[in-house]
């Protein structure tokens, strides 16, 4: 596994680069725009750091490039690598459309299964009933998780769990780095204000 | 032998409900009685056992053809449904349905299942008719049998879940020993239609024994292994035991909470960064400069991590921006493109030009604050 510190360094480097590229065009942005830009560049930074090896990173980039207004920003942030990345992402988009068909079939099957289960439920002993209830709970939760992890709706359980592992690691690194920078900047601001007051 | 077979086959035949056909059920009941009289033998003679009702199978074959049309839509679902433990064994033979002989075998098997579980005959009575319908679905079926060998291969070759593999293999062996059956692996099952070992396999309570459910079980074990990893990753999760399904639900709950909280934190932090810094640049030199007296206590980590990479990321920038940087003090109020490049000055530069940098950033910050 990658070491977390190297992950953070990589992430920070790319993020800063992305921000730099992004701000070179626009001068003044209000808070919301800035936040969006920051978040977007952070997402793209880590996603590009994975180089499309994980499916959630691909989904992130795909989502970013989908909206037209974000797209230009995203492309600029990604910079020269954007072509390669977007190509890689677009190849996975084809699988997304196939996955949609599979997904609809799965939904159909699931609805039929639930009907069958209801019918059977009266005969089965307690233990199996409990099992089916637990199964349903797990299924509900996996659905929620699928919504949370980007690009997770089209994955089966096993890969979903792997993606979640990766995604959690990424989120942690992102949170740590952002927190450090935020607190550092705030401290400097405070210091500067204090210093100026003293002067 | 008979009661064992009954338990096994009963577990197998807890399949999806299909449409009943009264005639067929009657036929099957006759078959059942005929089969009951046959003294069953050990596993190796299973094929002999199957051979006995061959004539009856041929009859069924002809009768089933008439019912081809009816259960087609119904059988569509269970074919795709790998996830259900209690699916019938039918889909396991889908890859072999190109041969007409297999149909006979399937019907033998179907009747064999019917034989042991009288009460489930209505469900399984439509099974042979479904098998005839299955012939038409050859396309989708090989895909599923392909997935089975693949998953079985995965099961065999995955080093991360070796323990699980051993466990599942032990279970398989137990099942084998149960009847002396010939079931070696799922690959062999899909290829070897003659033996039909699934019926001999001793099922665990409440579980079917077809190759699909084995694949399902292997998958689930993998999932459990990953869930354990996740458990260790997510804080506060080690208490819940993940082997039970209820445990799995709890672990998933924790994971979901964790992911949601992390995402929320990211949002909040990005908002915070946006407010703290009116312009979306972060003067890294000022951040990590040796005004470390105040910073080091609170930002130890931020100091540590940049200390590690002073050279690497910014080497490219350094040469370009050194020249521009000299203009910094002059062009302080100019927030043009050059200013952006200055943010990547390395620590060494910041050490040398600490004061001017600081004053520059000071002023810049002040200006930003006023905005």
Tell me how many strands of chain B there are: 0
Quaternary structure state of the chains depicted: heterodimer
Distance between the termini of chain B: 87 Å
Succession of helices and strands of chain A: HHHHHHH
What structural class do the secondary elements of chain B suggest? mainly alpha
Count of extended strands of chain A: 0
Helix count, DSSP H or I runs of 4 or more residues of chain B = 19
Helix content of chain B: 55-70%
Give the distance, in angstroms, between the N- and C-terminal Cα atoms of chain A: 50 Å
Order of helices and strands of chain B: HHHHHHHHHHHHHHHHHHH
Strand fraction of chain B equals under 5%
Structural class based on helices, strands and sheet pairing of chain A: mainly alpha
SSE blueprint and pairings:
The complex is a heterodimer of chains A (199) and B (371).
Chain A: H1 4-23, H2 31-50, H3 55-66, H4 68-78, H5 82-121, H6 126-148, H7 157-198
Helix pairs in contact in A: 1-2, 1-4, 1-7, 2-3, 2-4, 3-4, 3-5
Chain B: H1 2-12, H2 22-37, H3 46-51, H4 54-66, H5 72-80, H6 100-116, H7 121-134, H8 140-157, H9 162-179, H10 186-191, H11 211-233, H12 245-276, H13 284-288, H14 292-298, H15 300-308, H16 315-326, H17 337-342, H18 347-352, H19 354-370
Helix pairs in contact in B: 1-6, 2-6, 2-7, 4-6, 6-7, 8-11, 11-12, 14-15
Domain IBH1-like N-terminal (chain A): 5-67
Main location (chain A): nucleus
Pfam family, one (chain A): IBH1_N
